[in-house]
Amino acid sequence: MIQFDNSYLRELPGTYLRQPPAVAPAPEVVVFNASLAAELGLGALPEAAAWFSGAEVPPGAEPAALAYAGHQFGGFSPQLGDGRAHLLGEFLGPDGRRWDLQLKGSGRTAFSRGGDGKAAVGPMLREYLISESMAALGIPTTRSLAVVATGETVWRDAGGLPGAVLARVAASHVRVGTFQFFAARGEEDKLRALTDYTLARHYPGVSGALGLFDAVVARQARLIAQWMGVGFVHGVMNTDNMALSGETIDYGPCAFMEAYAPGTVFSSIDRQGRYAYANQPLILAWNLARLAETLLPYFDADEARAVEIANDRLDGIAAVYQAEWLAVMAAKLGLPHVEDAFVQELLHAIQGVDWTLAFRRLGQDGYLALFDDTGPISAWLAKWQALQPDLAAMARVNPAVIPRNHLVEAALEAATVGDLAPFTALLAAVQDPFGPEAGREGFCLPAPVGFGTYVTFCGT
Ligand code: AMP
Ligand code: MG
Fold first, then answer.
1. Residue range 283-321, pLDDT digits in tens
2. How many whole angstroms separate alpha carbon 37 and alpha carbon 51?
3. How many domains in the chain?
4. How much distance in Å is there from the Cα of 460 to the middle of ligand 1?
C-alpha cells in the first residue's frame, strides 16, 4: 500500500497530461530494492510486478507524463516531455520527505515524438546499478526501486532486446527544462506557480525567483563537484537532465573515468566532447544561465536591472563551484582545506593514472607502482605528507569500488540473456564503496588493456 498525495498534479494543472502506462504482456521482477523500499516505508511491495508494468495502477496513483523542454547539446527543443515515462504519483517517506514514484520505459505518451516509449532491460539495469552506486557514494541522486521485465521485445539498432520498466524515486522531476517549457510559451502564470511549487517542495524558507536561483546554484555546484570527485561523467548534461532538486537524474550514457584525462568522453553521440569530464563545471554554468533566462522577469520588474542581477549571479557561479570543488578535493586528500595550485600540481602528476586508485591508495605502501614517471608525484607527495593528512578520513571518502566499465558491460550482457549473477555481485560491491580492497580486488581494478576505449550509447 502506497499512500499517494499527488501535489504536482493538484497544484500545477496544465503542466502535464494524464496518460496510462502501457500494459506489459508478461511482467517479471528482475531486481527489487528491498532496503530502499523499507527505508521509504513502502514495505515488501508484493504488487511490484503488477504496479510497475502497467498491469495494475496502484490505488491513489494518477499516471501522468510531465511537460518539459530542453537544450540538447546546445540546441533548443521547445517540446520534449516524458516520452517514455509515467509519473505514478508522490508519497511521503517516514521522515516526511516527499518522493516522486516514476516509471521509465512504460510506453508511449503524447510526448513520445517518433519513439516507441519503451526501454530495454540492459539500460534500465544500468540506471539501477549506477544510481545505487552514486547513492552509496553519498552523491545526491534519484534512486532505483525496481526493474521489471515486460516480456516484450523492444527493437533497437542492435536488434531485438528484452524490454523492461524501471521504477525510480526522485525528490521531484522538476527540471531546468520544465521552466524552459513555460518560458518559451510565455505562460507566466505557470512559471510563477512552478517557481512557488519548487521553492515549497525543495527549498522551504527560501523565497522569490532569485532565492530559488541562488539555492539551485548552490546545490548544483555541490553536485557537480561531487561528480568530479569520483570521476563521474554524466554524458548528457542537457538542460532537461538537470533537476532543480540538485539530484543526479537520467542515467543514459554515463560512466566513471578510469585513467585520469580531463577530456574523457564515453557517449557515442558526444563527438565534440561538450559533456567531457572537465567540461562539466562549464556546462553547469551554461545550464544555469538557461534557468536564469526563464526567471529573468521575476528577478526585477525593471528589465535592465533584472539583466544586471542575472549577469552578476552568473559571474559568481564559477567561484561557488570552485569553493565546492576545493572542499571535495580537500576531503579526498585528508586535509581541512587545500589551495588550487596544490591540487593542480597533483592533477598534473596523476594524468593517465587510474583516478579512483590514485586517491584510494594515496598514503599507502606501494603507491608509486601506479606511476610510470614517479618524479612529479614524488615531489608532490613530500609536500602532502608534511601537511599530516588524515588517512582514516580519506578512506571514508575515496571509494575502493566504483562501477568499473568492463564489469558493468559484462553484467548487463549476462543479464540480457537471463544470467543475473554478475549483476547481483557487482551491485553488492558498488553498494559498499568504501570497504576494503582486500578480498574483492576484481571489483577495484581498472579494465584490462584489451577492453579498449569504452563507448556508451544513449539508454533508449
Ligand atoms: P533522455 O535521453 O532521457 O534525456 O531523453 C530525451 C527525450 O527523449 C525525453 O523527452 C525522453 O522522454 C525522450 N525519449 C527517449 N527515449 C525515448 C523512447 N524510446 N520513446 C519515446 N521517447 C523517448
Ligand atoms: Mg532525460
1. 999 999 999 999 999 999 999 999 999 999 999 999 999
2. 14
3. 2
4. 7
- pLDDT score of 210 more than 70: yes
Of 170, 201, 231, the one marking the end of a domain is: 170
Q: Is 297 exposed, middle or buried (0-12, 13-18, 19+ CB in 10 A)?
A: middle
In a domain, 48, yes or no: yes
User: Ligand 1: which of 76, 109, 112 to mutate, most ligand atoms within 8 Å of CB?
Assistant: 112
From 183-187, 245-249, 452-456, the region with the lowest mean pLDDT: 452-456
Q: Is residue 457 part of a domain?
A: no
Query: Can you give the pLDDT at residue 458?
Result: 75
| DSSP H helical ranges for 87-203 | 121-136, 176-184, 188-202
Q: Is the CB of 155 under 6 A from ligand 1?
A: no
Residue 459 has pLDDT above 80, yes or no: no
The answer, yes or no, to whether any atom of ligand 1 lies below 6 A from the CB of 118, is yes
Q: Is 127 in the pocket of ligand 1 (CB under 6 A)?
A: no
Question: Is residue 386 situated within a structural domain?
Answer: yes
CB contact at 8 A, 84 and 110: no
Whether residue 5 lies in the annotated active site: no
Average pLDDT rounded to a whole number, residues 145-171: 96
**Residue 220: inside a domain:** no
The ligand 1 atom nearest the CA atom of 109: 21
End-to-end CA distance of the chain: 31
Q: Give the domain range for residue 27.
A: 7-170
What are residue 101's DSSP bridge partners?
89, 169
Q: Is 241 a pocket residue for ligand 1 (Cβ < 6 Å)?
A: yes
How many A from CA of 7 to the centre of ligand 2?
22
